[in-house]
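Readers of this paper often ask what the protein records in our data store actually look like. Such a record has a labelled line for the sequence and another for the backbone structure tokens. The tokens are whole numbers drawn from a learned vocabulary of local backbone shapes. We quote a single record here, exactly as it is kept in our systems:
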Amino acid sequence: MTTRRLEVLPPEWQGPILELVMRAREAAAPPEDLDRGPWAIAETGQVSLSTGYKASRHTASAGQYAAHILRMRAAVAAPGDASRNALAAAGPAINSWDWDERMQAALDLRRTFKSEAPGSNPDSMPARMVAPWLTHSGGRELLPSTARLCRYALGSDPDENELAGAWYATHGRRLVAHLAAGPSEIPDGSSRAGDVERAQLRAAVRGLCEARVATRTELAAFAGVARPTLDAWLSGPDSAPPSNQDAPVGAEWNSQHHHLHDTALYDTAQEDKR
């Protein structure tokens, strides 16, 4: 049986894709005193797409990061523009790799701007960028579409909270599910395990809250904690209280992470063999 050799991403695609992966990962890193292992595990849960190129998981994640950055901006913008409203509601399709779901969302977005002359409405530009990317769920055509979307998102100068929110919108549910499933091993085997796991879960929940993909009630159920506990976790000095506790909200927090060398951004050897 012959294994097809995967190609390295061309520089014109590699640059924006890997830059966005690195910046989102740095922005979403937990506080320095917490183990980053669960965050890495959440990333490895990303779908490995068939594109004919290496780093397929990073390609998938980067496109989702870029789309979520634009979606989150649309969600906090003043309502009224049809393109912004449709993009703000596209979170489930952005996280999906089901072609039918993605294509339907792309058509919903296109419907809001198809009668406009290109460039006539700046408010519709984010939707115009996301829609073509949603029409692909794999294959070589996904690569240039992802690179264009990443380049556009990076050119819009996303801040650290937007980058972190995009990471959590993409990986946050896997991270919270992993941490809520039960304590992992603590090297010294002490009773600190519960405290460490709780601190990790709190950081993960706050990050997922930043992504604006779930209400507080949904977050509490998903994390397996009581609603008062969740409210306490989200009401620290570095989080902004929302005007509506059951609207998707964002916690204003960010931690610095060690710099990752570009070569480390490629997927593991196992993925390179796919």
Remarks:
- The chain has 13 helices and no strands.
- Confidence is low (pLDDT under 50) at residues 184-193, 238-274.
